[in-house]
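Ops channel
N.P.: pipeline sanity check, posting one input/output pair.
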C-alpha cells in the first residue's frame, strides 16, 4: 500500500471516530439519576467534589435512606401506640422528664434559627434514637404484646443505632455492617409490622 494511502486511512479512521464521539451523548462525571434525587442533586456542587468521596457517600446514602425510614417508623410506632393507649397527654405521662426536657431544649434551639427547616412539630422527632429505647422500656407493659423481649428491643435498636451514628458522622460501613442493619430492620418489621 502506498504511503499516502496509509495516511489517508489513518486520517479517515480518525474522522469516523470523531463523528462517532460527536454523535454520542456525553456521560456526566457522576450518574446522579441512578442513586440520587436529581432535583436535590442539582442544588449541590457534587461535580466539584472528589469523585471517590462522592461515590463512597452515594453508597452510604442508600443505607442512610433505610436507617432514616426505619428510625422514623419506630418513632411513629411508639407515638401511635402511646396515643392510642394514653390519648393526647401521652408525652407528659409516658416519657421521662429527662427525655422531655432534652427534646424540648432541642426544639427551642431549632426555633431560634428561623431561617432553617426544623425536624418537625411532634416532640418525639426531637428525641435521639437511643431515647426511643428508653420510652419503650418505660412503657414496656404497652409494648410487650408487640415486641419479643426487652433484650431483643435493646439489641435491635442499639445495633442499628451504632451504624446510624457512623453514617451520620460521614463514616462508611463495611458490607457486613450493612447486612447486619438490613437483618435487624427486617426482623423488626416482621415482629412489629411497621
Amino acid at each position: 500500500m502506498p504511503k499516502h494511502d496509509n495516511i489517508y486511512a489513518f486520517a479517515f479512521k480518525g474522522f469516523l471516530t470523531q463523528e462517532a464521539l460527536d454523535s454520542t451523548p456525553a456521560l456526566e462525571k457522576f450518574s446522579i439519576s441512578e442513586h440520587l434525587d436529581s432535583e436535590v442533586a442539582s442544588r449541590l456542587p457534587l461535580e466539584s467534589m472528589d469523585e471517590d468521596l462522592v461515590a463512597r457517600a452515594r453508597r452510604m446514602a442508600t443505607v442512610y435512606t433505610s436507617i432514616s425510614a426505619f428510625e422514623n417508623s419506630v418513632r411513629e410506632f411508639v407515638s401511635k401506640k402511646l396515643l392510642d393507649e394514653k390519648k393526647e397527654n401521652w408525652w407528659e405521662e409516658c416519657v421521662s422528664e429527662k427525655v422531655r426536657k432534652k427534646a424540648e431544649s432541642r426544639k427551642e434551639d431549632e426555633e431560634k434559627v428561623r431561617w432553617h427547616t426544623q425536624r418537625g412539630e411532634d416532640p418525639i422527632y426531637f428525641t435521639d434514637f437511643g431515647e426511643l429505647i428508653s420510652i419503650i422500656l418505660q412503657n414496656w407493659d404497652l409494648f410487650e404484646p408487640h415486641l419479643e423481649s426487652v433484650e431483643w428491643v435493646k439489641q435491635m435498636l442499639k445495633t442499628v443505632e451504632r451504624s446510624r451514628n457512623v453514617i451520620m458522622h460521614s463514616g462508611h460501613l463495611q458490607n457486613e455492617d450493612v447486612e447486619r442493619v438490613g437483618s435487624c430492620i427486617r426482623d423488626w418489621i416482621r415482629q412489629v409490622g411497621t
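N.P.: looks fine end to end. The chain has a mean pLDDT of 85.
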